[in-house]
Amino acid sequence: MGSGTIVIKMKNGGKYTFELHKKLQEHRMAGTNIDNIEVNIK
């Protein structure tokens, strides 16, 4: 299984980072304004 991270940048300048080997918990970001999603595969 590959390693890497997902970086989700918010319009208000905030940032969420997720490890690819962990489950992405969508409910943690409910109601947020996503500006950009960046995926880095290593």
Automatic annotation (TrEMBL):
It comes from the Bacteria. It holds the Pfam family Stap_Strp_tox_C. SUPFAM superfamilies: Superantigen toxins, C-terminal domain (SSF54334). GO terms for cellular component: extracellular region. Residues 3-41 form the Staphylococcal/Streptococcal toxin beta-grasp domain. InterPro entries: SuperAg_toxin_C, Toxin_b-grasp_Staph/Strep. Belongs to the staphylococcal/streptococcal toxin family. This is Exotoxin. It comes from Staphylococcus aureus.
